[in-house]
Structures are given as C-alpha cells and as structure tokens.
Backbone:
C-alpha cells in the first residue's frame, strides 16, 4: 500500500505545523503545506495529493474560492477536499456537501484525532 499524500492549505503557519506533525506521526502520511489558495492550487496540480485540507478563512483567496478553482481545473477536480473552519454549523455543512466538499473539520481541532477524522470522512483504514 502506498503512503497517503495530504496537502494542508492554511495561511496560519502554526496550523500547518501542527497538522503536518500529527498526520505524519499518527498516521504515517506524507504532508505538504501551502500558505495560500494560489500556492495550494499549484501544489495540488503538481503533487496530486490524496486529499486537501483547506482553510476557509484566508486572505486574498478564501477556501471556498480556492475549492471552486480546484473543481474547475481538470488536473485537480477529482482530489477530495476537507475544509478546516472555525465557523461550522449545520447549514454550513449542508452547503459544503452540496458543493461537493467531502467534510468539514472544526478549528481548533484535536491534533491527535485529526488523522482519524480524515480517515473516517474518506473511508480510509488508518493502519500504518
């Protein structure tokens, strides 16, 4: 089985570092990070990750706009996206699901449970 490739797109360096350390340590996944929507799109095109964790609130290009650009791009359209967001209500979850977003994880998240939340959302086995 090949190692899962995760792309974390978040403008907060701390969130990138915590997610990277936890996903690599807990799940043994390879994690790439990006600090903006534009950087995330470029890395998604070139790296073709298994999933993208995408912050909603980012300067210049927010997560929803980034997601729409990923969906419009034939190279990135099939990559599942999970949102990381501080604002998550039932109405938001429904809207995200209608847009084609796989899931949304509330921030602040529990670093030790992040890999399990991703695995459940995607139907992955978490065994290393």
Residues:
């Amino acid at each position: 089985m090949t190692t899962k490739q995760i792309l974390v797109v978040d403008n907060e360096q701390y969130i990138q570092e915590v997610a990277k350390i936890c996903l690599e340590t807990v799940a043994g996944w390879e994690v790439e990070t990006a600090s903006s929507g534009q950087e995330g799109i470029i890395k998604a095109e070139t790296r073709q990750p298994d999933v993208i964790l995408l912050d909603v609130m980012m300067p210049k290009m927010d997560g929803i706009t980034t997601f729409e650009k990923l969906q419009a791009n034939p190279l990135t359209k099939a990559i599942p996206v999970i949102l990381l967001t501080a604002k998550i209500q039932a109405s938001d979850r429904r809207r995200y699901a209608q847009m084609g977003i796989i899931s949304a994880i509330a921030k602040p998240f529990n670093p030790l449970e992040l890999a399990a939340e991703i695995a459940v959302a995607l139907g992955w086995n978490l065994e290393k």
